[in-house]
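Researcher: We're teaching a course module on how sequence relates to structure. For the next exercise, students receive a sequence and then see the predicted structure as tokens, so they can try to spot secondary structure elements on their own. Here is the exercise chain.
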Amino acid sequence: PTTLTYDSLPPADTPGIEDTAFTEQDYKDPGVLGPDAASVLMKILYLARCCRFDLLHPVCMLAREITKWNYACDRRLHRLVCYLKSTRSHCLHGWIGDPAESLSIMLFTDASFADCVGTSRSTAGVFAALVGPNTFFPLNAVCKKQSVVSHSSTESEIVALDTALRVEGLPLLSFWEAAVKAIQTVYPASQRSTATAAKKKR
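Model: And here is the predicted structure for the students to work with:
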């Protein structure tokens, strides 16, 4: 077997490989990275959830194959690690320049239609951010295999929208409304205390 080292990893512009690059035999032959795949993927998943949302889709796709690891999975994992090496300087940025009352929660959704070769199920993608005139702050991202088989890309995107609203949108909205009310309650009281203290010092 070929020994791979960090320095020998080739550059990669994308984290995934097109399905057309595999043969039917690639899905039948057992992979050699199976015993260590779960450990590697969970480390990458932690990074993906924290600050590298671009890794969520390839990691989640491979995590589904842990119990049926094959040669195609070996190649996908190798490509993912090569991509990680090539983009190790990438990071997530966010900025806030507005008061809480001027901010809104925005959801962006999409679907990868029938991207699961074995089941023809689609994958829903969700991105949530706090947005304002001078604000854009990423909150969370979700990559989730859909539980139904969609018959068109439009149908898969409707399912993705439903997932976004139920899993992220409504809980975030409830939390944000309560947080803004708390901020509006605390700050005026704090400002009154400061003003009173200032007058006493005069």
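Model: If you want an answer key for the exercise: Strands lie at 104-112, 123-132, 135-145. The helical segments are 34-50, 56-63, 71-86, 153-201.
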